[in-house]
Each structure stands twice: as C-alpha cells, then as structure tokens.
Amino acid sequence: MAAPPSSPVVLITGSSHGGIGYSLCEAFATKGCTVYASARRLETISTFSHPSIRPLVMDVTSDTSVHKAVEQIIEEAGRVDIIVANAGVPCHGPILDVPIETAKQALDTNVLGVLRLARAVFPYMASRKRGTFITIGSVMGYNASPWAGMYAATKAAAHAITETLQMEAKALSPDIRVMLVVTGGVKSNLANNSQFALPPTSLFQTYLPNIIARIQSSQTGPSMPTADYAQGVVNAALRKGGAPRTLEIGGHTMLFKIFRWLPRGLVMFILWRQLGRLRK
C-alpha cells in the first residue's frame, strides 16, 4: 500500500533490537513517518509495536539483497524519502591482532554497506530530484585511538564517501540532501556485540584491561541515552529547510571538536596517555 503523501517514507539499515537503528525507527515513526526497519535477520526486528514500522530483511553486504529491498519499498510505498545508513559492526583490538577476515567483514559492512545503499537509492532520488541520505558516522572517523584502529579506519572511509556524496549530489538536484551524523558516546548494544579475545601470540597481553576498558568506553561516562540520540537525529533529518550537512551528537563530541584544532601529534599523545596507561 502506497504511503500517504504527508508521511515521509524512511529506510533504516541495522535496525536490530537494542541498537541505535531500533531507536531511530521508533523516533521517525513517532513523527508520522512510514518506516522500513531493516536487518539481516527478521527475528531481530519483529518486536516493533508502532503500526507504521514495517520490518524488512536486508543484508548490506549483498548487492542483490540491498537492491531487492529498495525495489520492494518503491513497489509498496511508491517512493523512499529518507535513507539512513546505520548498519555497522565493531572491530576492536590492537590493529596488529585484527584478523584480516575480521577487517574485511568490518569494511564490507561499515564502508561498502554505505556505498551499496547509496548506489541503490540515488537513482530514485535523482529521478524525483529530492530526498535525504544519512550516514551514521562516528567521532572515530576523525581521530583513531589505540585498540580501535580498524573500526576508526572504516568510519573514516564512510565519512569520505558521505562527504563526496554531499558534493556530487549537487550535480543532481539542490533538494537532494546528504547528512553525516558524527556520533559520540551513545548507549547501545554495539559494544555488547563485540566478540573480542586476544590471540595467544599477541604482543599486547599486558594491555588487555586497557583494551576492555576501551571497548566499554562508549557505554560509560557522558554517553547519551539512545532515545535522546535518535530524537536529535530525527529532528535534524526532518528540519524545515532540509537536513544539515553535518550533525555532531553524543558524548565526547565537544572533546573531539577540540581535537580537530590541536596538532595531530598532541592529540595522539593525549589519546595514548589516556588509553595506553597500564591498568591492573
């Protein structure tokens, strides 16, 4: 059934229960949007109670799956107005210890997943000369840190893709908006989903407490409640006059803003001093 003209049609990837995407789905639905909540497994997106949220199976690591899901939305709803590239996987640990296959999986989801989604939806946006594409990025895309270097690499690449889209979309229509959300600390299940263990041959065995603390850091201190984060993103996406180019939201975002004005070497010194001091 086609969505009412007054109800924006939203597609969100990585909408599994307990994560940022799940809260984004609920926040968009509360604003009167028709929301397609996608994930790889249907059982992880089957607990929504809002009638305007429609579960959709999509694997962002599969070209076929992404295109099939987008075509289904166009067929059912008649259009797609807002697309949120949220799907992501963690990738923690000393960069020398990250298995190549694990790194490939992170790149396939966090980087190529954004590109696959953009390639699937931009032809529809261009034909209508309007639409909003949103990438859920991270403060880690600006500054790598010890014990999370591979994850930072994926987010830096996702930022580059998104900022390139921001420029190239101008050739298609001034009403096609591309927003990069630079996410700080947000309470979600991303850290819980991180399957981490040091290999027996690791050169960093004595730093295991530091690594565990780094993995859990986004869930402690000034981390923002997921519902508050989602509401902030949705308000920006639906802003009168169009979504902004960049939204920085979540815990520690001010600190990382300051980091961008400091000499790179000083930032690396601060991060190592904070995260590299041996813990007991």
Automatic annotation (TrEMBL):
Family membership noted in the UniProt record: Belongs to the short-chain dehydrogenases/reductases (SDR) family.
UniProt keyword rRNA-binding present: no
| Name of the protein | Short-chain dehydrogenase/reductase family protein
> What Gene3D superfamilies has UniProt attached to this entry?
NAD(P)-binding Rossmann-like Domain (3.40.50.720)
**Mind naming one GO cellular-component term on file for this protein?**
endoplasmic reticulum
**Assigned keywords, A-Z:** NADP, Oxidoreductase
The reply to whether NADP figures as a keyword in the UniProt entry is yes
What is the top-level taxon of the source organism? Eukaryota
* Gene Ontology terms for molecular function: oxidoreductase activity
Q: Which Pfam families match?
A: adh_short (PF00106)
